[in-house]
Write a structure and sequence with these properties.
Elements lengths: L9 H16 L7 H9 L20 E4 L2 E3 L2 H10 L7 E5 L5 H7 L4 E6 L2 H13 L5 E5 L12 E6 L8 H5 L1 E12 L5 E9 L2 E10 L10
Parallel strand pairs: 3-4, 3-6, 4-5, 6-7
Antiparallel strand pairs: 1-2, 7-8, 8-9
Helix pairs in contact: 1-2, 2-4
């Protein structure tokens, strides 16, 4: 177990969080002050199963149950930095998982709307976020492919699950000037992050780094 100890204190977790930001994020080129500050503040250990909390700040994804994972800290930071978020924006997150990324987002933007398809995870994440006081995160249990049309349009959308094709339903829910980042590719082999921006009626697209995410469920399949 990397960097672990028995019965860690809050001070130990805080030191591990500082080390994570310094060695896993800043050292790899993450520079957005709001992203770094949020990841410094959010207690990642509260968003992983209790038996592996000592591993919460390791440089790797972690299993959170129901065949799902919490992303590697660098991937979370990288995706958020690419969106160039600000404190006035409303963001849709697809793939709430344990709630960690939504918690980080909540420290950067005005409102977070987060969807999770697995009922048990949605319930647990909502409870954790509520207990920790992340009041600007709104959650629901539904298929993220369809987005959350009742609250659209969104200034940004972040998708923490891989689609084999771009979900047009999500693109439709982006505001003018809105940005979206998501992994595209086969959930069993190669995926790359794609960054899209809606601008003057068209979509500008860029390709990012290779990643590996669980699949986003296409309701038509």
């Amino acid at each position: 177990m990397s960097g672990s100890q028995q019965n860690p204190t809050e001070a130990w977790y805080r030191a591990k969080r500082e080390e994570m930001v310094r060695t896993q994020l800043v050292a790899r080129g993450i520079h957005d002050p709001s992203v770094l500050r949020a990841m410094q503040e959010v207690p990642r250990q509260r968003f992983v199963p209790e038996m592996i909390r000592n591993e919460a700040y390791d440089d790797s994804p972690l299993v959170i149950g129901y065949h799902q994972t919490i992303s590697q800290p660098f991937i979370v930071a990288y995706m958020l930095e690419q969106l160039h978020l600000n404190s006035t924006e409303r963001v849709l997150e697809i793939g709430l998982g344990s709630g960690y990324q939504a918690a980080v987002l909540s420290r950067i933007v005005h409102e977070v709307y987060a969807l999770e398809i697995i009922p048990e995870l949605a319930k647990l994440a909502s409870q954790t976020l509520r207990e920790l006081g992340f009041a600007n995160v709104h959650t629901d249990c539904r298929n993220g492919w369809e987005g959350w049309r009742e609250h659209a349009p969104f200034d940004a959308i972040i998708v923490a699950a891989a689609a084999e094709r771009l979900p047009e339903t999500l693109l439709d829910q982006l505001a003018e000037g809105g940005r979206m980042i998501l992994p595209i590719g086969d959930s069993r082999t190669s995926q790359v992050l794609r960054f899209l921006q809606k601008k003057a009626g068209s979509v500008i697209e860029q390709t990012g780094i290779a990643v590996m995410f669980v699949p986003l469920i296409d309701p038509r399949e």
